[in-house]
Amino acid sequence: MSWLGRWMRSYRQLLMDKPVMTKSVTCGVLSLAGDVAAQYLEQRYSKKDSTKVIQMDVGRAMRFTSFGLLIFGPCAHYWYQLLDRLFPKATTRSLISKVLADQTLFTPLAIVGVFSYVSLLEGRPFVSKVKQDFWTTLKANWALWLPAQTINFRFTPPEYRVLFVNSVALIWNVYLASASASPVTKSTQQDMDTLTS
């Protein structure tokens, strides 16, 4: 048996023995990979001199990784179980219901969650961050995740759904890590200060 086959068998056993932990660690590892890729791309393409050494912000990477490990991974595990209980039939109607519930209920909360979590750990105002970037991020999310979740709920066995999401999320996390780390613009902060005064 190939190394990939052995790895998949071991991973499946871990999913059966310790599903939440396995999915959470997988999510954390792929969140880290997404943030490292985002930092590399941000620095590589924003520097005038592309020969400079890339400087990784380890704190930023750990904040994004810990969100995946501690919050998103466990939440996704239970969320997908709930969707399977609410919409148990393998029908087109159930598929559409799962995708719509995922993208209109869970996803907005996850986006607000990651923006709030990262902002709070950095000591930045999270309300203005959410106000500034939520809709742009949600629309970008829908462009990728509506088709991805349709494939996921239609073809992926339930125990592998978080793995599928984490695999696609490697691409998404590059975007999300960059979006969650971007500063709040001055005009957005001034608008928020005006509202709270």
Name the features.
mainly alpha, 7 helices, 84% helix, 0% strand, disordered C terminus, Peroxisomal membrane MPV17/PMP22-like protein, Mpv17_PMP22
Give a verbal description of the structure.
Keywords: Membrane, Transmembrane, Transmembrane helix. Pfam families: Mpv17_PMP22 (PF04117). It is found in: Membrane. This is Peroxisomal membrane MPV17/PMP22-like protein. It is a multi-pass membrane protein. With 197 residues, the protein is mostly helical. It has one domain. It is built from seven helices and no strands. It has helices at 3-17, 19-46, 58-86, 92-122, 126-155, 161-181, 186-196. The termini are far apart. Mean pLDDT is 86; it is low at 188-197.
